[in-house]
Amino acid sequence: MLPPAQQRLEDFRQQDRVQAGSLIISVFGDAVLPRGSRIWLGSLIELLEPLGLNERLVRTSVFRLVKEEWLRTEPSGRRTDYLLTPSGQRRFEEASRHIYASSAPLWDRRWRLIVTVGELGPKEREGLRRALFWQGFGVLGGDCFVHPSADLTAAFDALHAEGLSGILGRLKPLLAADAQFGTAANDVDMVNGAWNLDHLAGVYAGFVERYQPVLDQLRTDANNEIDDQSAFLLRILLIHDYRRLLLRDPELPDVLLPSDWPGQKARLLCKELYRRLLAPSERHLDAHFQLASGQTPPASRLIHERFREDDPLAELA
Question: What are the residue ranges spanned by the domains of the chain?
Fold first, then answer.
């Protein structure tokens, strides 16, 4: 039987279908952005090959991300670097404030609303619903999308990046104090109508079930021994899974959540496991991360501030 860390990697490799583009986005946000937001394509291929992503799949996925304006190219001799576009970098930086936070954001008791004020065709409406779902918005009726803390400007920027700029003129952003919805009980009713919290709780529980054995393995190993490559691969999968989970999570305030909400446990788990994987994974990047010029840029010191608090690593109950 494989140790939990190796089992997690093997489970990923055995998937029938891998969404390589989404995984590459996670790699850029977590590992490439702190090293100057660019990487040689050959280096990216080498880093991802141990996860079972072959060269053709990586190339095809990267070309698609260029077409979708996440990335751009910059030749250097006979090689090519891939860089985050300015809009791609802004989207990553906005996401990073949520992904690497040590705790959930405080609620200012105002709801963010996006209301449709013009007619939308069925395809437009479904595209809007899907795009806002991945930003954590819930739906009230069919014409109002709600979120407790989203940056509405960033939300509209993301809709533009998703190719929905043609409908932005038919959307109206609003701020509403929670009192405008009535009592706290009415807020809870609204939350239950706008989001499927049971499903989201199940996704969080699945995340904990997947990564708790890995954390337990690292905790019980007195020397914290895991090879550098495995640490990097696990770090990428951890952040990839957590990023996709947070994208659909509105990060509701505690007062509006069930008392046994698993989101905080997942956050603490991700925080501790990431901190334990950080040093060996950075050694792997120092050895294998290259630009088209052959240089290896150092990581920004800010990477060591991720999930950082004044207290030592939080132990889970």
Answer: 110-194
Residues with Cβ < 8 Å from 27, sequence gap 6 or more?
44, 47, 48, 236
How far apart are the C-alpha atoms of 244 and 209, rounded to whole Å? 16
Give this prediction's pTM: 0.84
Residues in CB range of 13: below 8 A, 6 or more apart: 51, 52
Give ∠ CA 208-279-35 in degrees, rounded to 5.
100
Do 111 and 181 contact (CB within 8 A), yes or no?
Answer: yes
CATH number of this structure's domain 110-194, picked from the four choices 3.40.50, 3.30.70, 1.10.357, 1.10.287: 3.30.70
* CA atoms lying within 13 Å on the CB side of residue 199: 7
How far CA 108 is from CA of 137, 148, 174, 175, in Å, comes to 17, 8, 15, 11
Write the DSSP symbol of residue 16. S
Cα 86 to Cα 27, 52, 134, 304, distances in angstroms: 17, 30, 21, 23
pLDDT digits (tens, 9 = 90+) for 198-248: 999 999 999 999 999 999 999 987 665 789 999 999 999 999 999 988 888
Tell me how far the alpha carbon of residue 10 is from its chain's centroid. Answer: 22
Burial class for 317, CB neighbours closer than 10 Å (0-12, 13-18, 19+): exposed
Rounded to 5 degrees, φ, ψ at 136 are: 90, 5
Q: How far apart are CA 126 and CA 131, in angstroms?
A: 8
